[in-house]
Amino acid sequence: MNLRGKQKRFLRAKANRMRPLFSIGKEGLSDTWLTQVNDALNRRELMKVNILQNSAVEPQDVEEFVAANSEIQVVQKIGRTVLLFKIADQAKYRHVSEEVKQV
User: Fold this and answer.
1) Got the DSSP string for 25-92?
2) Domain 5-94 adopts which CATH fold?
């Protein structure tokens, strides 16, 4: 699903009070990290990822890595925080994506 501007705005508002669930540290980006994030998104559909100060990774690097290796979409990048969205594989976890479709 390609997100329109209105849908991205809706997701940003929904994630406003969320706290980052995952962090990227000095190890950087890896397939293991992406697998864990993907598994978490299959249950939540929307989450924040924090890039720690000791990491050499930039938010643009996260966006390129995620886009190239998965179906996860980057909704927003603010400072060293990235907001990720993915439609859940199982229908019983598709709460956020159902709301997004109605926007």
Assistant:
1) -TT---HHHHHHHHHHHHHHSEEEEEEPTT----HHHHHHHHHHHSS-EEEEEETTEEEEE---SSGG
2) Translation Initiation Factor IF3 (3.30.110)
As given in the structure block, the two tokens for residue 78 are: 């603010």
d(CA 68, CA 77): 17
> Where are the chain's structural domains?
5-94
Total Cβ atoms within 10 A of residue 5: 7
- Name beta bridge partners: 81: 50, 78
Mean pLDDT of 23-30: 93
Q: How far apart are CA 75 and CA 69, in angstroms?
A: 16
CA distance 22 to 5: 25
pTM for the whole structure: 0.93
What are the residues facing 46 on neighbouring strands?
85
